[in-house]
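#structure-requests
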Amino acid sequence: MKAVWNNTVVAEATDDELIKIEGNWYFPPDSLHEKYFSDSSLETECIWKGTAHYYDIVVDGEKNEGAAWYYPEPKEGSTKLAKSDFKDYVAFWRGVEVVEG
């Protein structure tokens, strides 16, 4: 699977490396092409997963603010509900497409 934004692959992983939670594919941290990611100050709270931190994605000078999120410290018990340890795994939105390939 690949995460694509602005016609650029920003992350790619094999199916067995991905985790699906609530309809979103989460990519392992080492699958990111780091040069496209920068820390964002955005944070949100999920009642069962914890505090989500965000990355901005920058490709060819264009910034997609808060387009990727991850949980650096998932709430206790959330990995059992997700059926996997998703700490630091990254999911995408705001126009980033996750496609096979």
